[in-house]
Predict the 3D structure of the following.
Amino acid sequence: MGMREEVKQELVHHIIPFWEKLKDEEYGGYYGYVDFELHVDKTCEKGCILNSRILWFFANAYMTLGDAGLLEYARHAYDFLKKYCWDTECGGVFWSVTFDGKTGDETKHTYSQAFAIYALSSYYDASKDREALKLAWQLFHRIEESCTDAFGYLESFTRDWKPEDNEKLSENGLLADKTMNTLLHVLEAYTELYRVSGDEKVKEALYRSLRIFREKVYREDTQQLEVFFDTEMRTISDLYSYGHDIEASWLLDRAVQVLRDGKQESLDEQNAELLAETSEYTTRIAERIAERALCDVSMNQEAMNNECFLGVVDTTHVWWVQAEAMVGFYNCYQKTGNSRFLEITEHIWNYTKEYVIDEREGAEWYWDLDKSGKPVSGKPIAEPWKCPYHNGRMCMEIIRRTEK
């Protein structure tokens, strides 16, 4: 069985059933927490990012596999987003709600709004429900009106859209005003919204995000993306996030392709040059990652290390990093024809099969592993950040990209 069939089997028989079983029939949405011992906490908060990612996942699983039942699971997540995650008073989506749908963390974060746009756009594509597109539009305008400044995207806000410290997307002891992570997922969301709508305003915002990546985030000298920034998009950290770089390499390429597939008559010389430059440096990012972030673990298998902070490499093997690495390296193989990137993809898949996929009954993927391949951290199997978005998307990307 080749890799395509193996990832399809993983998607259909493992990942999808796990998340289907977390459907909350009483209060709506999906249960928000499964601990390492596979105990479901039905009273845990429900992250709005998690709900959006689940909505995106089932909408795309339906479009990939054609199983109408999957669209019903997407509709269940969509109904929960509309009824509970959406702030009908101040606009936008909350950070989280309680298990029974009451307002939890009222923070409005650009990251959350972006994932809701991403999910709503895909759900519109799957269901043709124009209400979903209308809601995506509302969030797009909210971001452009409330979350932008001269340098990029502001990130964290109170419920009534007053700026506040960006603690939720800051890490490594830093407090960042702006992050590459949020910018990447705004670009990802706008790519999907433009793909399904073809709207000129979304296209302009998408080009703006690409320019910020080119001018402020990508470093030509190191061929990597900076991670944390001050208000004027000046870097404040010595951090090399391998997972975000390889994820960005293919999401940026996706944006380029969607823009090129749009109205060609409006592609002026300046924008054409931006698209060409973006496509070129994303390949260099993937090549650099292949040099810096891969490590042999056993039996000639390879995995992706997590990050490098202040020159120290974190050798933890995180589930989402492996998933994004497979898509990123396969994307680079498709672009360059270099079989080395195909081999890397297959090696990481072999490692994932051997170590990352949790074969316990009723489980999904481990969160992370130490360098010997053991899940020693005991982190949850599902929680507000642990979702089917990365590994499910990897499966669907490989299936789509290897269609005959």
Remarks:
- The CA atoms of residues 129 and 346 lie 38 Å apart.
- The first helix runs from residue 3 to 20.
- The two ends are 16 Å apart (CA to CA).
- The longest strand covers residues 294-298.
